[in-house]
Amino acid sequence: QPLLSPLLHESDTIFTSVILILGGISVATAPAATMAVMHELRARGPLSTTLLGVVALDDALSIILFSASITITGQLLLSNADNHLIMQGALTIVGSLLMGGVGGLLFGHFFQPDKRPESNLMLSLGAILLISGISNHLGFSPLLANMTMGFFIINRVKHADDLFHQLDIMEETIFCLFFTLAAAHFDLKVFKTSAVLGVIILLGRFAGKLGGTFIGGRISKASPQIYRNLGLALLPQAGLSLGLVFLAEPILPTEIFDMLLSAILVSIIVNEMISPPLVKWAISNAGEAHVEESDED
User: Fold this and answer.
1) pLDDT of residue 190
2) Do the beta carbons of residue 260 and residue 287 sit within 8 Å?
3) Which domain holds residue 180?
């Protein structure tokens, strides 16, 4: 019996599609876990500064790569593969960026910081739903469009920090609903093969993060303190990965989607158990954990 599901061996198209989707998903990092450890350790220094910038770009890069891969995958599975796949992926990315930029600029005209917090909260939720709906209708990426809109709002709208603090209140509830929905799709029938695939995803992602940061650090002539520890600090994985999997559901066969979702869940569960201690070790190894001296102060 093969270690991986026979579904992956049905055709080269399905195998290629799964690989493309996993590649885009695996880039994502869960910033909340990394930031929580940094806050706990009161981390500061070259590694911490670099980590903040990389984490911010990491998820954006993941969404861009996933948008391109999902466009190519859709064409492959629909047997419409042609020489314009790269162009279609580029249009999806550019369209999502433009959509988010326009949404962010328009939001600035309607946002009034002196209004009641409830009014601005409803404006924010309405903007998110509107951008998501238009993006879906036009074939763009709702995630990338909303991320771009958030970037424009936080950088161009005065008092936007207060608005984002209001949205933070809803974060835990949304994550609870999100993971409950994901767990409801967990298929025990495919657990054996999906567990193996989940471990492969976990190991492959670890190798990519560690190897990529090491090689990139050497090429950019970063200090050993950074390139030897940065990879470990980028290992956490959670919400965004699940969100990207659900975006792939409409174009994937049901069996493939169930297997892929179960594998990602296995990878995330294991990851969330082992990655926070690794992040803590990386920051401490770089000499940037200042929790003890802060306690003394």
Assistant:
1) 61
2) no
3) 6-296
**CB neighbour class for 110 (10 Å; exposed up to 12, middle 13-18, buried from 19):** exposed
Tell me the CB-side half-sphere exposure of residue 40, using CA atoms within 13 A.
Answer: 13
- Kindly state the tokens that stand for 251: 């174009």
DSSP state of 250: G
Q: What pLDDT does residue 6 have?
A: 56
Q: Whole-model pTM?
A: 0.68
**φ/ψ of residue 42, rounded to 5:** 50, 50
**What's the structural domain count of the chain?**
1
**Tokens 């296995």 sit on residue:** 266
Contact criterion met (CB below 8 Å) for 56 and 234: no
Structural domain includes residue 1 = no
pLDDT tens digits for 62-120?
888 887 787 777 777 766 555 555 666 677 788 888 998 998 888 888 877 677 777 77
219 HSE (CA, 13 A, CB side): 6
In a domain, 162, yes or no: yes
The residue among 202, 205, 221, 213 whose CA lies nearest residue 282 is 213
CA–CA distance, 234 with 54 (Å, rounded to integer): 9
| Assigned domain for 267 exists | yes
Instruction: Report pLDDT for 291.
Output: 63
End-to-end CA distance of the chain: 61
Q: What span, in angstroms and rounded, lies between the C-alpha atoms of 197 and 192?
A: 9
